[in-house]
Design goal:
Layout (H helix, E strand, L loop, with lengths): L2 E8 L3 E3 L6 H4 L4 H13 L1 E7 H13 L11 E4 L12 E4 L3 H12 L3 E6 L1 H9 L5 E7 L7 E2 L5 E11 L2 E11 L5
Parallel strand pairs: 1-6, 1-7, 3-4, 3-6, 4-5
Antiparallel strand pairs: 2-8, 7-10, 9-10
């Protein structure tokens, strides 16, 4: 089982703009290679984890699209300190506190399948600090925002495993080596 932070970012390292908008991302062309790669990734995912801001964005996007279905068919955990409304018919579980306990629950639910950290960067950072984040897959878009939600606000050493182009994106896969060498 692998725990992966699979996300997209701008060239200057932001997941969303200061207003939590992903408009910059939604207009990018992923290409057939990117779509196939993501479909293969999702086929191996047994549980997902996201923060409350990401959850609220997904729900808002569903509402704007006319009340579409929850896009994930696997158990989904949302880390939050607030009371949020569940999506009807979706297996969404709200949690707070230490990510270790949630990771353990996710691993049990996923069986031999992988875990996907959808967003945000701070949540992925908490997993990395706990030694629970195995890899980061980041699709870099040809956009510069200048400010916003940072990709991964932690000091980490990563090892580049592979990189390729997928439409407008440069996609890189990194193994999480651990805290920055200077911090160990």
């Amino acid at each position: 089982m692998t725990t992966t932070f699979h996300t997209a970012t701008t060239l200057d390292g932001f997941l969303a703009d200061p207003d939590d908008s992903l408009d910059w991302l939604l207009r990018q062309q992923q290409g057939a290679e990117g779509e196939d790669e993501f479909a293969a990734f999702m086929a191996g995912v047994g549980a997902i984890l996201m923060g409350s801001t990401t959850y609220e964005w997904v729900v808002r996007h569903l509402d704007e699209a006319g009340g579409g279905e929850w896009p994930y068919r696997v158990p989904s955990w949302v880390m939050t300190t607030r009371d949020l409304e569940p999506v009807p018919g979706a297996d969404v579980r709200f949690a707070s506190g230490d990510v270790r306990a949630v990771h353990e629950q996710m691993a049990e639910a996923a069986g031999d399948r992988d875990l996907w950290v959808v967003g945000g960067g701070d949540l992925a950072g908490q997993l990395a600090e706990a030694g629970l984040l195995d890899e980061v897959v980041v699709s870099v878009a040809p956009v510069v925002l200048g400010a916003g939600r940072p990709l991964l606000p932690r000091r980490l050493d990563l090892e580049l495993v592979e990189t390729h182009r997928a439409g407008a994106f440069v996609v890189s896969r990194y193994r999480v080596a651990g805290p920055l060498l200077e911090d160990r």
